[in-house]
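Example 3.2
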Amino acid sequence: MHAAGPKNPLHGITLEKMLTELEAHYGWEMLGRKIKINCFNFHPSIKSSLVFLRRTPWARQKVEELYIDSLPDLKAKTDEPTQDTSEEPPSPEATIENEHSV
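Structure, written as tokens:
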């Protein structure tokens, strides 16, 4: 396994978080292609995959390696600016005024 400590990229990252982020980034189909294990290819779910990965060290190691290799892509995805949804949409009156002023 990996050394413990804050310099370890897996320090503080749970297997569930790793798997959730990888699934969100790649999807089950691509995960099944990258790591050829049945829990990613047949009726995949986070729960069933966690059960298998916790009991199978070689498969967990492959997931950890893929996560480490994918960290730059995962961080870039989270660093992208997101649209601020806290702003209220313009009122219908403002929309009508803007259409007439064009």
